[in-house]
Design a protein that fits this description.
It contains 8 helices and 9 strands. The chain is of the alpha/beta class and about 250 residues long. A 6-stranded mixed β-sheet has the order 5-6-7-3-8-9, with helices on both faces. Strands 2-1-4 form a 3-stranded antiparallel β-sheet, with helices on one face.
Length: about 250
């Protein structure tokens, strides 16, 4: 288990011989075991910030610190990103250390847990998008991550499948005690999953509000009207002026 601390995190990109800022300075504390959702319009820096937190992007200003320096991390993308030339079984084996024979029981366990126990020998092209994403869940969780980074992993799924996969991910993360950071365009999804919602807006992006949802308790009912109220409030916050505009 590990938390994250961000201090004065910024990101600039080369542009027309100079630089174009993508993120204004961001300070954020994420507690061990917390589920944080990042929401905001396109271009507000959500995925940029996620990539910085995960270590995929190291060309940034400020500091990102894990409370456990040896933390194991996993990252799920919008697409499953399974290797198409490998079977489902071999896609999971790819992320594991050790002799192949020692991996089989663990792989079988995790495929069973996501409802793919009979699909170990299938190739990604033989599976539906929903099945591929569930295989990606198994691949992300099989290493027992301390921190799981999610970049809109449910957005390509139909709503029925998305709800099932969301619930699976949430239950597995709670079981492992993993810290989770989710990027989503869907405020209702964030309300269902997150302990806190970090609202981002602007170009360059900045944090305009943080919504604490711990009062909702767990487990949550996707039909609970309180989730819809949170979603509408998040949309209102997204529609408001940014902090930098307030200061002008």
């Amino acid at each position: 288990m590990s938390g994250l601390t961000l201090r004065n995190v910024t990101r600039d990109y080369p542009h027309d011989g100079g630089v174009r800022p993508a993120l204004l300075p961001i300070d954020l504390d994420i507690a061990p075991g917390e589920f944080v959702g990042l929401i905001g319009p396109s271009g507000s820096g959500k995925t940029t910030l996620l990539n910085i937190m995960s270590g995929l992007d190291r060309d940034y200003g400020g500091t990102v610190t894990y409370s456990n320096p040896a933390a194991v991390t996993s990252y799920m993308f919008q697409e499953s990103r399974l290797l198409p030339w490998l079977s489902v079984r071999d896609n999971l084996a790819f992320v594991l250390d050790g002799p192949s024979r020692d991996k089989d029981a663990l792989i079988h366990e995790w495929l069973e847990r996501v409802g793919l126990g009979g699909n170990a020998r299938d190739y990604p092209g033989q599976m539906s998008i929903g099945m591929q994403q569930r295989a990606a869940v198994a691949r992300a969780m099989i290493v027992k991550p301390d921190i799981l980074f999610l970049d809109e992993p449910f957005s390509a799924l139909d709503e029925l499948t998305a709800m099932r996969v969301r619930t699976e991910v949430l239950e597995l993360c709670e079981e492992l005690g993993a810290t989770v950071v989710l990027v989503t365009h869907n405020p209702l999804e964030a309300a269902f999953l997150a302990d806190r919602i970090v609202v981002m807006a602007g170009q360059p992006g900045e944090v305009v509000d943080i919504m604490d949802l711990n009062y909702l308790g767990r487990p949550r009912d996707s039909d609970d009207t309180k989730l819809w109220e949170v979603s509408r409030e998040a949309v209102r916050k997204l529609s408001g002026p940014t902090q930098s505009e307030h200061s002008n």
